[in-house]
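Figure 2 data, in text form.
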Amino acid sequence: MKDLCIDTSGGAVVAVVTEAGTTVSTEPNSRAHAERLAELISLSISEAGLGKTAKESDLDQVIVGTGPAPFTGLRAGLVTARVIGRVAGIPVRGIGSLEVLARSYLDDMPAGAEIVVVTDARRHEVYWAHVRAAGPNDVEILEGPAVNTADFVANKFQGSGVEFAGPACQIYSDALPSTRDAQGFDVAVAARIVRARLENGVEDFPVDPQYLRRPDIHGEKK
């Protein structure tokens, strides 16, 4: 199976996952990733040895992160994924970005472990989800995703024993302490989750964006 994975919930992260391996291209600058997304996709497809464009690459599916994330960046990834799917005649399957991040942390934890993943939502808030491992490749969302202050999330899980992890732990370390090392966003993990669900008979992979709040017409505030 040959998968093109796209996520623009932070910067732009693109991966082509095949049986031969994975190629990854990234643009960490969230103010430039929309402009560079097409270039990153072409680069990943080329480095994977599948040609120069998605149409000639013989891809089997496009997997796209559905957020949560700010309006502009997330829309860029979703629109691009839909266009590629239409042009190449392949399915486009959505997966929550927090699920992908959680799975990366859960790989280093015992089977059935739970974690609360948190990412920066700006405006002094965080995106979060309470997630449990479901086998070696999938996850189950127990609660969320949602957007709240770091203090709200800290109080909600106080005394539960569930660990926090994710980029927002470095920003709000007093409220959300973590013993987990920070990890970069590994978009290739999305392929593992989607493949596991397909094997279990899941057919519904919504590509609806998870904005969680209305777009700010004046631009996102820091």
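Caption note: The two ends are 40 Å apart (CA to CA).
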